[in-house]
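Chapter review. Work through the record for Small ribosomal subunit protein uS17 before attempting the end-of-chapter questions.
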Amino acid sequence: MEEQKSGRKTRVGRVLSNKMDKTVVVVVERLIHHPQYHKFIRRQNKFKAHDAQNACRVGDRVIIEESRPISKDKRWVVVQVLDKAVI
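Structure tokens for Small ribosomal subunit protein uS17:
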């Protein structure tokens, strides 16, 4: 991968939907520790990301990077596809 541009956040997630043109919905999961019950809870966030080549399919693992606002909801860009989904 190329050198990181300073100040831009990156996330690794899974493609949840690719029904829009040049846009994918990426779900990013993280584990948090509950302070009282000492259990790990799975939390997730959904991000709309720009996919210029329409290369991503549902189930792919991708790296997304923060960018300028592209539309009302899109502020992320797909940088790299890590794993292709097995069909």
